[in-house]
Specification:
The structure holds 2 protein chains of 2 kinds. Helix content of chain A is 24%, strand content 37%. Chain A is an alpha/beta fold. Chain B is of the alpha/beta class. Chain B contains 9 helices and 12 strands. Classes of the chains: A alpha/beta, B alpha/beta. At the A-B interface, helix 8 and helix 9 of A face helix 2, strand 7 and helix 3 of B.
Chain lengths: 448, 255
């Protein structure tokens, strides 16, 4: 029996039938309902990407789609007795870290595990399932982020997310506000009993001259197939500063398709740091549209082993003049792991005096690891400074010998060299526990 | 201290193995300074590399023992632990690893190897500052990445500084004089002379005599075509400086 692409699509989408029907039958004409209906049509009309699609050339999602994800009983799990401490890497330390903590289990907010501290009334940290926020938030963002759904959406996963997202975080700061403590968000898939799906939609909106830091953590418990389909929109107003971390550390059995869509008003600053250490198959899409006099930083570090597959696609779109972007992605690949990097820089005609830099450097520790890297620059303006570079190689044997000749054992010498390699990205991390954890993790990985 | 007997070593050139050391004999005792000279391509740097344990070379025959231990059996880091130090002809630049971190790791790994306790941060810092001052090594170089952007002279001074920190039993200086101006040459030579005592030994591998004006050798050996073809005292170095290597080549050719 041969399985056609349509079969795969219908198998994957079968559990959504009831939900889709509810959306279709909804006679409301509010923007959210309409957006969901448009998303349903898009799902109907579009196919899942295959490796013939340029954007998915090296990432085959058949392994995701061949699973059936049960949607019925997920709601119960949000109050589960799951002990987060048992498998977490620094949730324990979070208590000392002093942060806001939001926990979502299988796509639903878990109040029991969360700890949102009091803030002033110009700052709000809420969840999408909270009915007073959901519809209005969704609407506010739909217009601003056309790439997240409908005819301009980046992939069918975004449309599925628009139509069926169950929950997510919503962080809003009015003008001149500072969120002093970082927000640590834990997205947990409990796949210990059965296949699990989390569909999350998040919003960060930061008013003029305001700042905040959000740390997304992805965690899986259990070995059953589990998928996170997540989409985050970030609206950064003038002179605002947003730092977003994406940590894929403790999620060995997880499939993940996630995207972050950021819009920067003039004079704003945005930093995304994506750290990937574990997962079955991860696809990260990061898209930034930058205004005038903006700064955009894209930092990535992936340390992969076994059969982990991580695909980072980034787009920085300079549409106005005098902005600066800097992208540094570094990877260490061991075992049979595979990493994909595709970084696009667009500099539009109007974006004169843009400075845009990109680099992707990789170290392969094993002959079976695979790397596909593709930098892409498209420049319409003529007065710009742009550069990109990609390197892939083994650890420098000469450097290794030099360290050994000074009495440093080979294993330790490798750790030193890899820590030095990762330093550039580690250095940009402003959360000390995270930096320390990652520095040690490089050592732990190699001593296995 | 060091006994090399009929040592043969080759390198894989990609188009087959090429024999470079073809039966080399050398004995170095504690308290001695040996100079190894010879024309380009005679195998001087290969000898230094083989003694330090560089994997590119395959030892195909003979033996090398260090204080009775079979040197060829040991990994490079174990040789360093036993007390062998190679000052590199071309010190490697390692971005991201600071000179100080590197030095502290090296000092403590060697102490561990010897079964000694690790140095605490304060004692280490004190030692490092003292040794750096002796080598006239600008203290800013200690916090910078290892050799990164160092001048040729700074790199060589840094090698001798490392030697002073690690206090090996046998120091092998591989063309340490190359690329040094006269001031740096004197600083490097003074560093070696300060290090030198009756319990350790130095092998100076060099093409020219000029370093030997400052580090006076007890023995001078001429390496040619993978063998030591002539040995003598410091006067031999002066003779080579005056007459070049052609007469040696002729002697060898004449058998």
């Amino acid at each position: 029996m041969t399985t056609t692409l349509d079969d795969i699509k219908s198998t994957f989408l079968a559990p959504f039938e009831d939900l889709a029907e509810k959306v279709s039958e909804n006679i409301n004409t509010d923007k959210l309902t309409l957006a969901k209906k448009t998303a349903l049509e898009a799902i109907e009309n579009n196919a899942f990407p295959t490796t013939r699609n340029e954007e998915w050339k090296f990432t085959d999602i058949k392994s995701i789609l061949s699973n059936k994800f049960d949607l019925q009983s997920e709601k119960d799990s949000s109050n589960s007795d799951l002990d987060l401490n048992e498998f977490d890497y620094f949730l324990n330390k979070n208590k000392d870290l002093n942060s806001h903590i939001l926990v979502f289990i299988n796509g639903h907010f878990s109040e029991k595990h969360s700890d949102i501290k009091t803030t002033n009334d110009k700052i709000s940290i809420k969840t999408l399932s909270n009915t007073e926020t959901s519809s209005s938030t969704f609407e506010k963002f739909l217009d601003k982020f056309p790439s997240t759904s409908g005819k301009d959406s980046v992939s069918i996963f975004s449309d599925i997310n628009t139509a069926f997202a169950t929950d997510g975080y919503v962080i809003e700061l009015e003008n001149n506000q500072e969120l002093e403590l970082p927000v640590f968000v834990y997205f947990v898939n409990d796949a210990s009993q059965k296949n699990t799906l989390s569909q999350l939609r998040n919003y960060i909106s930061v008013g003029e001259n305001s700042r905040c830091t959000v740390v997304e953590n992805y965690i899986t418990k259990g070995e059953n197939p589990n998928l996170t389909n997540i989409l985050t929109s970030v609206n950064v107003e003038k002179y605002a500063n947003v730092k977003q971390y994406k940590l894929q550390i403790d999620a060995k059995s997880q499939f993940q398709v996630g995207s972050t869509h950021t819009k920067q008003a003039d004079n704003s600053s945005f930093t995304n740091t994506t750290i990937s250490l574990a997962g079955k198959l991860i696809r990260n899409d990061l898209r930034i549209i930058s205004g005038e006099h903006c700064e955009s930083f894209m930092n990535g570090l992936y340390l992969l082993n076994e059969k982990t597959h991580v695909d980072n696609h980034t787009v920085i779109d300079h549409i106005r003049p005098n902005s600066y972007s800097n992208e540094t992605y570094k990877g260490v690949l061991d075992g049979k792991s595979r990493a994909v990097f595709n970084g696009k820089i667009f500099v539009r005609q109007a974006a004169q005096k843009t400075n845009a830099f990109q680099s992707n450097k990789n170290v392969l520790l094993s002959d079976d690891a695979i790397l596909n890297t593709k930098p892409q620059l498209e420049i319409w303006a003529d007065d710009v400074k742009c550069s990109h570079g990609a390197t892939t190689g083994k650890l420098d044997e000469e450097a290794l010998f030099y360290l050994q000749a000074r009495g440093i054992p080979k294993q330790k010498a490798k750790v030193l060299l890899l820590q030095a390699f990762a330093e550039e990205v580690l250095d940009s991390i402003e959360i000390d526990v995270l930096k320390e954890f990652l520095t040690n993790e490089i050592e732990n990985r190699l001593s296995l | 201290m060091l006994n090399i007997n009929n040592l043969q070593a080759s390198i894989d050139t990609g188009a087959g193995a090429k024999e470079i050391l073809k039966g080399l004999n050398l004995e170095v005792k504690a308290g001695e300074v040996h100079a190894i000279m010879g024309p380009n391509g005679s195998g001087k740097s290969t000898l230094a590399s083989v003694l330090a344990g560089r994997e590119d070379y395959e030892v195909t025959g003979g033996s090398a023992t260090f204080e009775g231990k079979d040197l060829l059996d040991l990994a490079p880091e174990e040789r360093a632990g036993e007390g062998i130090f190679l000052a590199f002809q071309y010190p490697i630049e390692i971005p991201g690893v600071s000179n100080a971190t590197f030095m502290k790791t090296a000092v403590n790994e060697i102490r561990k190897y010897k079964g000694q306790e690790e140095l605490d941060a304060v004692s280490f810092l004190k030692l490092m500052k003292a040794k750096a001052a002796e080598m006239e090594l600008n203290s800013s170089l200690l916090t910078r990445a290892l050799n990164e952007g160092f001048s040729g002279g700074e790199k060589k001074k840094n090698e001798i500084f490392q030697m002073a920190m690690l206090e090996p039993k046998l120091a092998i200086l591989d063309e340490t004089d190359s690329g040094l101006d006269i001031d740096a040459l004197k600083i490097v030579a003074n560093g070696v002379n300060r290090f030198k005592n009756k319990d350790n030994a130095v092998i100076v591998v060099t093409h020219y005599q000029r370093l030997l004006d400052y580090i006076v050798p007890d023995f001078v050996h001429v390496l040619y075509q993978g063998r030591i073809v002539k040995s003598g005292t410091k006067e031999l170095a002066l003779e080579l400086e005056a007459k070049g290597y052609d007469w040696i080549k002729e002697e060898v050719a004449a058998g």
